[in-house]
Amino acid sequence: MYGPDKDTLFPLAHHKKLCFLKNLINHSNIEVGDFTYYDDLEDVQNFMRNVKYHFDFTGDKLKIGKFCMIASGVSFIMNGANHLTDAISTYPFAIFGNRWEDAMENKVYPNKGDTVIGNDVWIGHNATITAGITIGDGAIIATNTTVVNDVEPYSIVGGNPAHLIKYRFPEEKIAELLKLRWWDWDISKITQNLTFLTGNDLTKISSLSE
Length: 210
Hints:
By secondary structure, the protein is an alpha/beta fold. It contains five helices and 15 strands. The protein has helices spanning about 45-50, 170-180, 185-190, 195, 205-210; strands spanning about 20, 30, 35-40, 50, 60-65, 70, 75, 115, 120-125, 130, 135, 140, 145, 155-160, 165. Strand 14 and strand 15 form a beta hairpin.
């Protein structure tokens, strides 16, 4: 076998605060790729507590790619948190009934669509990802960042709201890495190329994509 068992919940022996996330999730509207891990300072079950306002009736999905790293305290604010913003009041009268149930007749709450996290994305401690956001492959989200707009591949963002700090690599190399899609390789090929994946020699990308 190459690497850890992707189908185990706890890939590190005697360490129960880091899990392969796909093996923890039991929710039809959450999808997680292989080898993506969640590391929690207290209990990995906190991940589901931190996917907030994710109601079945909204229909939105949280999609997380392969080989992502999600730190403790990361929150995903889903579409169930949305209120009317172009109305006179943002108050959700209809949910309380008692002759208020018709307040939303012929109206709908905003829905920004699915939240999509690419592959090889690192999300730092206490970051917040808002509804409908797409985070590109290879991106890094700094600690305590609040992401309110899409994040480009191989970029580093931080702050509240998130702003671009820098790109990890030159534009042409980012294009090559996106074409390479190393996370889709067979696990044996990944294992054979660990030195490349943990190094910074970008001259080898072309040969590996052939």
